[in-house]
Write a structure and sequence with these properties.
single chain
C-alpha cells in the first residue's frame, strides 16, 4: 500500500467515524427528548393517582364518620 492510498484510507475511516459520532449525538438528543416526554407523562399520571387516592380517602373517612354518627344517634333515640 502506498503512502497516498494509506492516507486516503485513514481519511476515509476518520470521516466515517466522524459521521458516526455526529449520528450518535443526534440519536442521543432524540432519546433525551423522548425520555423527558415519558418522564413528564409519568409525573402527570402519578399526580393524578395521588389526587384520586386523596379523594377516595376523604370519602372513606367521611362515610365512616357519618356511619358512626348515625349509629350513635340511633342508639341515643332507641335507649
Amino acid at each position: 500500500m502506498t503512502q497516498e492510498k494509506f492516507q486516503e484510507h485513514v481519511l476515509s475511516e476518520l470521516s466515517q467515524i466522524k459521521d458516526l459520532f455526529i449520528k450518535n449525538e443526534q440519536d442521543h438528543s432524540i432519546l433525551s427528548t423522548k425520555i423527558e416526554s415519558v418522564r413528564t407523562e409519568v409525573e402527570s399520571v402519578r399526580t393524578e393517582v395521588h389526587k384520586q387516592f386523596n379523594v377516595f380517602l376523604r370519602w372513606t373517612i367521611g362515610t365512616a364518620i357519618a356511619s358512626i354518627s348515625i349509629v350513635f344517634i340511633l342508639a341515643k333515640y332507641i335507649t
